Amino acid sequence: MEHTELLDKLKVILRSAPSDVQEDEVQSVAQILKESKLTSLHLADSNIGCNGLKFLTQVLKHTQIHTLDLKQNNLRDESVRYLAESLKDTQIKHLDLSGNRVGIDTAKCLNEILSKTKLKSLDLDVHCREAPDDYNYISHELFRGRVHITLLNNKIGFKTAQYLNKMFPSISELTLGLIFEADDVQYLAQAFKGTKIGMLRLYCNHIMQDNGVEYAIGAFKDSQIFTLNLNGEKLPLEGVQRLAEFLRRVKVLDLRLCNNQMGDEGLKHLVPALKDSDIMYIHLPGNDIKAEGAQYLSGILRDSKIVYINLSHNTIGADGAKYLAEGLPDSQVTSLDLTGNGIGYVGYQYLGDVVDDTNISWVNLHRNNIEAGLAEGEKFDPNKIPRISKPVHRKICNMFELLVSLNPLTNKFEFIAPRNMKSFSIFEMELYAFFFRSLKDNPNCEVHIFDLMCKAENGFKLDIMNKINEFLETRQHKFNTFFDSKLPCLLESLGRVNGANIVRSFENLELSDIVQNLLLHRVFYYVDEKQEILHPYIYKLLDKYNMPLFSDRLEPNKRADIIAFFQEYPEMDCAQEIVDLLGSQSYL
User: Fold this and answer.
1) Are 527 and 560 in contact (CB under 8 A)?
2) Could you say which architecture CATH assigns to the domain 1-146?
3) What residue ranges do the domains of the chain occupy?
4) Each residue of 336-375: pLDDT tens digit?
5) What is the spatial distance between Cα 527 and Cα 542, in angstroms, rounded to a whole number?
6) Residue 303 class from Cβ within 10 Å (0-12 exposed, 13-18 middle, 19+ buried)?
7) CB contact at 8 A, 140 and 163
8) Is the pTM of this model over 0.90?
9) Do 280 and 254 meet the contact criterion of CB atoms below 8 Å apart?
10) 203-254 pLDDT, tens per residue?
11) How many CA atoms lie within 13 A of 26 on its CB side?
């Protein structure tokens, strides 16, 4: 039986399951699942009901199913508690209960049972009302998974605020009640100080009520929010202005404003807050944005960290595409969704004329009537604009994947030897110099590395951004540590390769910490058969950084030997400079 057919049949059985579960029926269904060799059951949006879940729980005890997806099944506390009490007798390692209204009593039950199960991840929505000890039923056991908290009102009080901050270092999704009050703010701020919030769901009421934005800023100014979701709230102009103030003072990476109908005037007031902010992803479909709005957005792209823009289902037209084409070069934007904007073939040409000066690697140009203007035989891919050169961000990300890895012991990014190389020599060190050069030439490149890591992890993790920033800030030190650790390998493969050019590459980048560390390892720079004379460029840098060229006490004849050698080989780069230097009064 095909898996799809089997799942459909199972859903029918679960929906019609009686309250009195019969063991022979349980064994029959369990046998079918065993024979199918399924290890995952995806039953989202299946409306299986309480009886169906009880029946399924009995079946799971006799199978090897380790992943169970039950999201959006309208499950209530009774059935979820029944499942929780039976988990210890199953092989379930990954359980998704998101989208079901789970109360505090059920959270208490889960808390008590989780340590006795094989669960490694749990997706859960917890709906909380005002109750001083509500959250004491939720322990660290729940943080092996993702937790969505819904505060049905915002009156959590001092005790609960302390508990939330202690127990929830990260929350996958937080939905607040509809109204802020002044005394809510101090407790919300305490509850979520330093907390990493995957998605914060706000409503128009939060923005438009008196002092609402100030309350929201007070509550979340010390939090890290990945996604701020205001989809479908139809914010008026004043609401957009207030939202802009919030964005200036609260760290947000992903802004979702779909179907708000803000128009060009609303976007005009929003874009100043995007400039010099941390926002990387912006979703603006269905906002009645025309060419003028596209012009406002284009004007701040070069000074922003935005990598993804969704302007689908607006009406920017060919003129709007022209404005975007003016702002995209030298910006960080890699992905652009212009579905249904009527840009036509002319707008497509505007984008094509500049694509090689941009980071664009993906577009969505469906439903723009571009095909009508194509010449005979001209090919068109709605998800790609033909380009000659590879985007810079791709080069940086490829180098990062090749030369950097997350150390499982330190949980920090560190330099590594290239994964695809069987041997590692001094010659390959040029790869690292190229990587450093790319980072220097693209000061906002961390957004592309973060975007890469999020895609690799199939999700957004704010701590990854912190680790990337830590790596970039300390990359010179990390490289020195890596280089020193690879000395035996490098020495073994040295052969006739001279490392002076590697030092030159880092010197040209003005990376003095790396240069001075490289200069300590003189064995890489000898140019004579006896390995006594260094490359003249190395002597030049040793002098520049006030490092000894040789030891007068141990090598009393070395100055004369160096001069004689470079007089014999004057064609070597910097040879005459060293002859003049060592012959000068300061070295006599």
Assistant:
1) no
2) Alpha-Beta Horseshoe (3.80)
3) 1-146, 390-524, 526-588
4) 999 999 999 999 999 999 999 999 999 999 999 999 999 9
5) 16
6) middle
7) no
8) no
9) yes
10) 887 788 778 888 888 888 888 899 999 999 999 999 999 999 999 999 999 9
11) 19
